[in-house]
Amino acid sequence: MSFFKKIFSSEKKETLNKGLEKSNTSFFGKLSKAVAGKSKVDDEVLDNLEEVLVSSDVGVNTTLKVIERIEARVAKDKYLGTDELNKILREEIAGLLSETNSGEETDFVIPSDKKPYVLMVVGVNGVGKTTTIGKLAYQFKKQGLKVVLGAADTFRAAAIDQLQVWADRVDVPMVRQDMGSDPASVAFDALQSGVNQNADVIIIDTAGRLHNKVNLMNELTKVKRVMQKVVGDAPHDVLLVLDGSTGQNAFEQAKQFTAATEVTSLAVTKLDGTAKGGVVIGISDQFQIPVKYIGVGEGIEDLQVFNKYEFVDSFFK
Ligand SMILES: Nc1nc2c(ncn2[C@@H]2O[C@H](COP(=O)(O)OP(=O)(O)O)[C@@H](O)[C@H]2O)c(=O)[nH]1
Ligand SMILES: [Mg+2]
């Protein structure tokens, strides 16, 4: 059995398709309009296509890259029919995603040589960090891994309680302190507790206050440094969560966070309720950071391992 078949059960695929349905309709509605009545890819079609890509939140730089590549093909082939445009676009977009995403990610795996595997989750308030942590804890636990959560978003009491709700729901231990306590101290405790419990995965929630870039950088640096006192090479992954429905704002956040700390992977959430699936393409291309997960709903199962083949398939259906 192919590993795609194994991992992307039809049920799972349906969720992804459903989640991306709006994006598709919108992208393809617009794409069809862009080529309506045209048989040949000419300047006007390319102009329209540019508009479609930008308005689908692919981002200006990535859009220009795609347009340039198609222009090059038009120049080479002389006559390029609009009926081929779909296939070519698909190839170009898959190509862009290939540069950062190996495409081999198919399940919620963590490297077996890192124990405990420490995952630090960052991002601004409201993007879906806590929810994504809950969903990840569920997936890892389902595999029989021992998971510990650390509530290092100590800025609001509600944030700690919200993570607690997920911890209880998934039935995994959570390390917490009072609201207002030092996030680095919570992270330290969580790692120590995880090590003592022989945990496989430790996931650390953080506060995403962007009011001051220097503050953010200092705070994340401190959390990392303190964690390294317990697990020398922690964190093994710094996952930046971005709200896919915010379009250009998500690009801006990616810029700020990558400037403040070394981000090693991305999760793009809320792709269920938006027409902006294109944000995944642009961000992946512009930041050269792999998209690891996509959020397609508020439920516990509504997190998918990002797979570029599946994504392009859904986008172009
Ligand atoms: N529709 C949808 N809602 C989501 C998704 N992920 C998170 N949310 C919702 O977004 C809101 C903020 O999420 P939360 O995890 O509290 O964000 P945090 O502040 O970054 O921790 C909540 O109402 C979540 O249910 C998603 O993939 N799809
Ligand atoms: Mg939160």
From TrEMBL:
* Entry EC number(s): 3.6.5.4
Topology in the lipid bilayer is annotated as: Peripheral membrane protein
Q: Which CDD domains match?
A: FtsY
Q: Which residues bind GTP?
A: 123-130, 205-209, 269-272
Catalyses which reaction(s): GTP + H2O = GDP + phosphate + H(+)
Residue ranges of domain SRP54-type proteins GTP-binding in the record: 290-303
Q: Give the first-level EC class, as a single word.
A: hydrolase
Pfam families xrefs: SRP54, SRP54_N
Q: Which family does it belong to?
A: Belongs to the GTP-binding SRP family. FtsY subfamily.
State the protein's name: Signal recognition particle receptor FtsY
Source organism per UniProt = Gaetbulibacter jejuensis
The gene name reads ftsY
